[in-house]
Design goal:
Elements (H helix, E strand, L loop, with lengths): L4 H4 L11 H11 L4 H8 L3 H14 L5 H10 L13
């Protein structure tokens, strides 16, 4: 299965764009947080974070959460720099 990156970032109306919440949740997972930790940072319930992550995964047509994070990085929706690397 191949994801169409133009559709994934919302330039094609036949494919829903990621919401701000979905993007924030994916970013925190990309930084290594568990969903309960992301919920704490975002002042959301764990269920709300999990729903956002599942929704993002479906919108990106990803096979799992890590695939969704990878696709979000590839299309530039979330930052892929490592905050722990020296500059």
């Amino acid at each position: 299965m191949k994801t169409d990156t133009i559709r994934a970032i919302g330039r094609d109306s036949s494919f829903p764009a990621l919401s701000d919440r979905e993007i924030r949740c994916l970013q925190l997972v990309a930084e290594g947080m568990r969903s309960d930790e992301a919920a704490n940072v975002l002042a959301l319930s764990n269920q709300e974070v999990n729903l956002a992550l599942v929704s993002a995964q479906e919108k990106l047509e990803a096979s799992n959460l890590m695939h969704a994070v990878s696709l979000a990085m590839l299309i530039g929706v979330i930052d892929h720099t490592d905050p722990h690397q020296p500059k």
